Amino acid sequence: MGRKIGSEKLGNLYSGGKVRKRREWRGLKDTLYDYWRWLKIMGMLAGFMMKPANLKGFLRYRWMLNYLAVPQMIDRHTAGLRGTHLRIAREEYDLVAKDVALLLTRVFRADKNCGNDKEFSKKIVVLDENEMFHIMCGFPNLMAVSWETAAVYVSVLLRGDGVTHYLDVVQEMGMPGDVCPMPAAEAGVCIDDDIPIFGACAIQCNTTCDGSLLGNAILAKRYEEEGIPTFQIAAPLRHTEEGVQEYAAQEIRNAIKFIEENTGEKWDWDAYFRCAKRFNEETRHRVGWMEMSRTEYPQVIGANLALYSETTYMAVAGRSQEFVEADRRITALAKKAFERKEMIIPEYRHRAIIWGVQAQYYTDFLPWLQNCWGILPLVDMLSLVYFDEISEDDPEQAIYDIAKLYQEMIMRNRTHGGYELLLDDLWRFVEYYNADLVILWEHISCKALNGMHGLFEERAREHGVRLIWVNHDLMDPRVVSRQSIRDDINRYMRSVLHEEPLDPSLEVIDDAMSW
Amino acid sequence: MKYFGGCDAGSTYTKCVIIDESGKIVSDVTLKSRINAVLSAEEALKQAIARVPGLDSAKDLAYLVGTGYGRNKVPFADENISEISCHAMGVHVTDPTVRAIIDIGGQDVKGIAIDKDGTVLNFAMNDKCAAGTGRFFEAMARAFEMDLTEFSNLSLKAKNVIPITSQCTVFAESEVISLVGEGKPMEEIAAGIQYSVAKRCFVMAKKAGAVDRITLTGGCAKNAGLKDAIEKVLRIKVIDLPVDPQLMGALGAAEFARQKGLAKGV
């Protein structure tokens, strides 16, 4: 048996040196397991650095420094976990880490600044970080690679202030400071000449906001200067309407044609449907985990669910059997834990729905909610995506499926398509998951969500649901600190709910000691 | 006689209130906060204790609660309670009919909805920028070359209101300087400033669901021009408290100390 959950004051892990003190004692069995997985990650990182192109990439790109924090990022997201839940989390994070290592290896092998493998580069289509990868499922001989994922998205997950330099760069160039920091950081990487150059062509997607469009324009200009033609999928915004579906499908046909013309490869339906089968199985697993969260014994929740879902749903898109195998293992573990009525933390005080767009620099906020206040983050808005199964044999329907997935990708499916998807669905999910609390992320640079503030308040009162606003600035912890995010919760829990924390050592912690 | 203390370590002022077993205020002190919250709290408590015969030091208080921005730095407190809860309790013991509070402190503004027993039902706050806070008024008074009291009364004489478009303290100051330079009537510019803050307070109050039987607390509650503007924006009469509204946090802390101290039999 592992050491009892909740038996260690987790705030103590923030009181010492950065790395040494962050190892958590979970009891002999769980600590040995965790240490073994930690060694595997360290081994993988060492193996990664042995490749000359990777080493060159590490020395060439400023954002690569963030990758030194990979083991610590996993530690932060597995804090307090024991037994089955530790194993579920490690299945998820370790595989995501391996997938990112593969992504980086491909980036640096193809990058003209590092490996400069031109033949390899010709087999790559560059995709956005925030984009469905299904468009590549019918090209088994091509690779979909997103340098944005490596340079920005993952960088911030690993280290909270991992992209602040690029935000400064983009603002020095004249972009306003209140633009969403995600596209701003991506544009900053480009302006700072920290962008790896590779690929036969690029496919972008009009994502969620004006900032994103602006960022994509800067990137497209840079790609085309390097001779990388770019196609932007203009997915319709009102994606729930029937009338836009034919237009959306035509955009997918156009994108496929563009890739064919620029790579010489032909779309392969057999390959696509193999991916579709895997994608459907992954969807079934995810739905199964979420169904468990309706009961008293949720098993796959919070940050683990959010980060893993983002990877499998959007970036993997059924292209990897390894993720299906991991899903099967996670489902087996979760079912066993469910039958045994295993709990993730010692006491469940509140069942919460996490709504809005999360602070990318503080994704371990959800484990903190669990460990500090006994708030169970059952499910988050970004994981509540498209649950219908896609066609596994009909090419015409498949085009519409891909178009639908593009329209309903993460961060897009609820911020566009009508206020009902953002506002009304929340209360439906509150009821469905039997939640008593809503944690509402308020990304202060996101104009799309900020306009809805008053409506959320009104509806929360109508439904008699407790709603806690949590301010953040997505990728810039200098604007809203991690302690400020915690204080939004601390204040509400103490002032309105009159509760004491499960683990008081976590209420105020020193982030200066954290990555 | 047992005495109970509340110390509100605010960002701009540190307040200390001592009450007796019946809840009656026997001493109160308001001091400008120093950079070191510990020193401010110690000084405020020392002065408050000196005004009560029979009290020599913090140890003579049966129970003491710290609150406010620097509450974690109040070294002699038996426990700390958030300023939101303390303001609600302070107002409740002062006037139990109040159901909503707009608390405008030195560096934040809060809307608080309270229940009939003084517990907090909900709150909303702006602590991310200086807009609509005491700092905002300090900056505006500086732009007018007036002290705060003079500035707060100026708008009461205005026949018209010149709207101030920017709520950001930095931009508003620049806008005000331009308007003064253009020779616009000072009292009408001042009224515009008070209205801009009143609208911000209205948003906070509405977000928290605090819209009925409303009162003002915090240092800015003494700003007559702001009170007048809030009454016009909210279209309700703001309830005047019989006790200095700046003391509500410390008074609430002292009341919590009284309840907890008596319950523990100290």
Provide the CATH topology of chain A. Answer: Rossmann fold
| The level-1 CATH class of chain A | Alpha Beta
Q: Radius of gyration of chain B, rounded?
A: 19 Å
Q: What's the main sheet of chain A like?
A: 4 strands, parallel
Strand order of the largest sheet of chain B: 3-2-1-4-5
Q: What structural category characterises the helix and strand content of chain A?
A: alpha/beta
Helix proportion of residues of chain A, in percent? 40-55%
Distance between the termini of chain B: 12 Å
Morphology call of chain B: globular
> What is the tally of beta strands of chain A?
8
Count of separate structural domains of chain A: 1
Order of helices and strands of chain B: EEEHEEHEEEHHHHEHH
Structural class of chain B: alpha/beta
Strand line-up in the sheet with most strands of chain A? 2-1-3-4
| Quaternary structure classification | heterodimer
The biggest beta sheet of chain B, please?
A: 5 strands, mixed
Uncertain residue segments of chain B: none
Please tally the helical runs of chain B, counting DSSP H or I stretches of 4 or more residues.
8
CA-based gyration radius of chain A: 22 Å
Shape of chain A: globular
Helix content of chain B: 40-55%
Please provide a written account of the structure:
Chain A has 515 residues and is of the alpha/beta class. Chain A is 51% helix and 8% strand. In chain A, helix 14 links the parallel strand 5 and strand 6 (375-380). The longest helix of chain A is centred in the first third of the chain and has 28 residues, at 83-110. Chain A is globular, with a radius of gyration of 22 Å. The mean pLDDT of chain B is 89. Chain B has 266 residues and is an alpha/beta fold. In chain B, the strands form 2 sheets. Chain B has a 5-stranded mixed sheet with strand order 3-2-1-4-5. Chain B has a 4-stranded mixed sheet with strand order 8-7-6-9. Chain B has helices at 37-50, 83-94, 134-144, 148-154, 169-181, 186-208, 224-234, 248-264, and strands spanning 3-9, 13-20, 25-32, 63-67, 79-80, 100-104, 109-114, 120-126, 214-217. Chain B contains 8 helices and 9 strands. In chain B, helix 2 crosses helix 8 (248-264), helix 3 (134-144) runs parallel beside helix 5 and helix 6 crosses helix 7 (224-234). Classes of the chains: A alpha/beta (515), B alpha/beta (266).
